[in-house]
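Good morning C.,

I know you're traveling, so I'll keep this short. The sequence:
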Amino acid sequence: MGYKIFCMGKVALVLLGEVPVVGPQISGREKAVRVAQKLFKEIDKLMAGSSVGPYQIVFKHRIGGRYDLAVKSSELSLEILHDLDELWIKRFRKIFHGIFILSCFYEKNDNLECLAVTDGLGAVLYSSEVRQFFQTR
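The tokens, ready to paste straight into the viewer:
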């Protein structure tokens, strides 16, 4: 891909220009495309189902000191990334300027590729802030 991708477990992060691209790391391009399309349909449902107010991007604290990244409206919540550590969150917050792209990453020839770059598959999400909730499941 030509960009430095930061991976933490099964989650990847890359900076394209000044916009961060984040998403799960999936084995195989075809499976990554299916996962991305499913995620985008769920986000569309969340946005369409939110009749009151905008959505928020939140980090939800889990038991064991890990976090999930979720998109939350007044009525619905969709967890989009799981098992993040504090280093990943710090890196994301450092480069987050109100907008990011949700996509999927897949391995190709011992390198990670990003569907937002290779296939144009990405959901652009905007939020004036990323909130952190310390409620555990």
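Safe travels,
E.
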